[in-house]
Inverse folding.
C-alpha cells in the first residue's frame, strides 16, 4: 500500500468518482454537494483531498481548520476499498498534515433509535481503534444529532464553534451543542 493524496479541484480527472462516492456514502439529509465542497476548498480554512493507492482512487476527505483544530466534515472510502486499512492510514496522514492540531468529527449517535445500529457501532469502533475519544458533547441541527469525537489532547469547544461560525458565514444554519450527563455514560 502506497497511499498518497492530492487536492481536489474542479479539474480533477476522478471528479465523477468523488461525486458518486459522496452520493453512496452519505444520506441526502447529511450530504453536502460536491460544488459546495469545491467552493469552500478555495478558501484559506478548508481542504478537499483525494486519496490514491498506486493511482487507484481510494476515497476523499473534506476538512475545515483553524489554529487549534481541524474538523473532518466528510470522509469516505470506496466500497471496494473498505476494511483494508485505508481509513486508518488516511486519518494518520491527516493528523500528520495538520501538525498537532486536534482532529474533531461527528458520528451518528448510538443511544438513539435507528435502523442502522450495527453500521453505527462499526463506525464508532473504527474511530475508537484510531484513537478518538468522546467529548461527551453532541451536535444538533435540522433534527439530526451526532456525537462529537476528538483525537488529540482535548476537545476545544470554542475552536469547534469557530469552525461552525465560518461555515455559517457562507451557508447559515442553526445548530446547538449539548452535553451528556456524566452519570448517564
Amino acid at each position: 500500500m502506497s497511499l498518497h493524496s492530492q487536492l481536489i479541484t474542479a479539474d480533477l480527472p476522478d471528479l465523477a468518482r468523488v461525486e458518486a462516492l459522496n452520493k453512496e456514502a452519505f444520506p441526502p439529509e447529511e450530504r453536502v454537494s460536491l460544488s459546495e465542497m469545491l467552493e469552500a476548498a478555495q478558501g484559506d480554512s478548508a481542504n478537499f483531498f483525494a486519496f490514491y493507492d498506486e493511482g487507484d482512487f481510494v476515497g476523499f476527505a473534506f476538512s475545515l481548520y483553524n489554529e487549534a483544530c481541524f474538523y473532518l466534515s466528510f470522509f469516505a472510502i470506496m466500497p471496494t476499498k473498505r476494511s483494508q486499512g485505508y481509513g486508518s492510514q488516511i486519518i494518520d496522514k491527516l493528523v500528520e498534515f495538520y501538525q498537532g492540531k486536534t482532529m474533531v468529527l461527528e458520528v451518528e449517535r448510538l443511544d438513539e433509535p435507528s435502523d442502522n445500529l450495527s453500521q453505527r457501532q462499526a463506525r464508532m469502533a473504527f474511530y475508537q481503534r484510531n484513537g478518538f475519544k468522546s467529548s461527551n458533547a453532541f451536535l444538533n441541527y435540522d433534527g439530526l444529532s451526532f456525537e462529537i469525537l476528538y483525537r488529540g489532547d482535548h476537545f476545544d469547544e470554542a475552536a469547534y464553534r469557530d469552525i461552525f461560525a465560518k461555515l455559517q458565514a457562507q451557508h447559515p444554519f442553526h445548530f446547538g451543542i449539548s452535553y451528556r450527563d456524566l452519570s448517564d455514560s
In short: The helical segments are 15-25, 34-41, 86-97, 117-129, 157-170. The two ends are 38 Å apart (CA to CA). The chain has a mean pLDDT of 90.
